[in-house]
# Entry
Amino acid sequence: MSNDSTGESPSTTTEPYMVAEPAPAAETNVAASNLMAALKTVHSAGLAVQTLSVSTIILSPTNRVCLNSCGLADVLALHPCSNMDAAQQSDLQAVGHVLSVILSSSADNYVAMQGQASVVLPGPGFSTDFKELFGYLNHRLTPVVAIDDVLRLAGSRVFSELDAARRESDLLCDNLKLELANGRLVRLVCKMNFITERSDNVVDPEWAETGDRYLIKLFRDYVFHSVSDSGKPVSSMAHVVGNLNKLDAGSPEKIMLMSRDEKSCLVVSYEEVKRCVEDAYQELVTPSQAWR
# Structure
């Protein structure tokens, strides 16, 4: 049984948390923040994990920490937990132990004590807030400490995580806008290619070469088959994207379209070309006996 308390999709959590190699301070800070957020979710529901350890933590490809085997102790127990405060206290102690195991993978996090064995403490790469949180979880817990008391120590870190999440959200929104714009351009290109150079109209085999359809063909040549003054093909993506964006917006700007034999020229606006594309496409998709 498993429960993802961080909201991450179970399908993306494929790697167990590994501590064989030294974990950078930044990743350890993120792991601590995610663990505390997961405990906050569980404890706010009046429950306790009770099985929190390094072996029950899963690290997702997006560096999110997820808790596995949540609720397993409740299922196996004959009776519900009678002392939830103590169980939640054990969860906090388990977080301290997990952080100790993570820190123990690096020699920089060992401090020699006079007359005693070396102890694990956050090294110089960790912030003061993390050091205080680590010490609190491992040495200062009392039976009355709750998750909210511990989270106060990580207040500044929470704001940093929130800011990072918002930055990521803004980046995803910007990328989504780009993809939406690309989708509009693809639809325009598809419509033009559906229309141009068709010969399957039974009534008028020259349908694609007459009227508004001929104008669309000239515009297609202007966008994709232009040549420079020296006769070289114009392969500029900026030229293509710029013209398609103006077509999509229906710009009143006018352009000159020339036939392939250079015997005729037409001066039209992007708005007029867009209307021709939409009208011809609607004629194409409307059921008619003219099409085989």
